[in-house]
Design a protein that fits this description.
The complex is a heterodimer of chains A (117) and B (89). Chain A is an alpha+beta fold. Chain A has a single domain, classed as Alpha-Beta Plaits (2-Layer Sandwich), CATH 3.30.70. Chain A is 26% helix and 41% strand. Chain A has a four-stranded antiparallel sheet with strand order 2-3-1-4, covered by helices on one side. In chain A, strand 2 and strand 3 form a beta hairpin. The N and C termini of chain A lie far apart (41 Å). Chain B has 89 residues and is mostly helical. Chain B contains four helices and no strands. At the A-B interface, strand 1, strand 2, strand 3 and strand 4 of A face helix 4 of B.
C-alpha cells in the first residue's frame, strides 16, 4: 500500500450536475480499485498557466489516496476515457503526508494577464 | 636557452575584479521551506521571466535541492500551475 496524491483538471464548461455525477463515478472507481480516499479537496476554477485543449481555465480537484500500485493503471485508463478531464496527475508521496491545508495561491505571470483575469 | 619575453606595454592584463557574493542554499539554511509542486508562489522565485528554471549559479541552491526543485517545477508545469514559457516582451 502506498500514498498517492491525485490532481484532476476538469473542463470549466461542464455543468454542476455533470460534475457531481462525474465525481461520484470517480469515487466509485476508487472503491472498485481498492483505493481509500484520505482527503478530497475542491480547488475551484483556476486560471491555467497555458491553454489545455483550447481552454484557459480549469476546475481543479485534489485527492489523497491510500492504494496499491496495481490499481494505478486502471485509474489512469478510467480518466483517459472521460472527455471532461483535461489532465490528471498521480504522484507517490511519503506515507505520513497529510495533504495541503488550503488551495494553492493564484500566481500571475504576465502583466497582460491581470487585465484578462 | 629559452628567450625571456616581457609582455609588451600596450597589453596590460586588466584584472577584472569580480566580486562574488557567497551564496548559501536557501533550503539548507531554512529546513521549513518545503519544495512542493503544489505551491507555485514559492516555485515562481526559481524561474525566469521567460518561465525557464534559474541555474544554480544564480540562485545559489545546492545540487541536491536543485534536483528536487527541477522535479517540482516540471510537475507544476504538467498541471498548468507554472507555464512552460511566457510571452514576456
Amino acid at each position: 500500500m502506498g500514498r498517492y496524491e491525485n490532481i484532476l483538471i476538469l473542463s470549466p464548461d461542464c455543468t454542476k450536475g455533470e460534475e457531481e455525477d462525474l465525481l461520484n463515478r470517480i469515487r466509485a472507481n476508487f472503491a472498485k480499485t481498492g483505493a481509500t480516499i484520505i482527503k478530497e479537496d475542491d480547488w475551484s476554477i483556476r486560471r491555467l498557466a497555458y491553454p489545455i485543449r483550447k481552454k484557459d481555465k480549469g476546475h481543479y480537484f485534489f485527492f489523497l489516496l491510500d492504494m496499491d500500485e496495481a490499481g494505478l493503471g486502471a485509474i489512469g485508463k478510467f480518466y483517459k476515457n472521460i472527455d471532461f478531464i483535461l489532465r490528471h496527475m498521480m504522484v507517490r508521496v511519503d506515507d505520513n503526508e497529510k495533504g495541503p491545508d488550503k488551495a494553492p495561491d493564484h500566481v500571475l505571470f504576465d502583466e497582460l494577464e491581470s487585465e484578462f483575469s | 636557452m629559452p628567450r625571456f619575453t616581457r609582455p609588451s606595454k600596450g597589453k596590460e592584463i586588466q584584472k577584472k575584479r569580480v566580486y562574488v557574493r557567497k551564496r548559501v542554499c536557501r533550503f539548507c539554511q531554512d529546513p521549513n521551506i518545503a519544495i512542493d509542486y503544489k505551491d507555485p508562489k514559492m516555485l515562481k522565485h526559481f524561474i525566469t521571466e521567460r518561465g525557464k528554471i534559474m541555474p544554480r549559479r544564480m540562485t545559489g541552491t545546492c545540487a541536491n535541492h536543485q534536483r528536487k526543485l527541477k522535479e517540482a517545477i516540471n510537475m507544476a508545469r504538467h498541471i498548468a500551475f507554472l507555464p512552460f514559457t511566457t510571452l514576456s516582451r
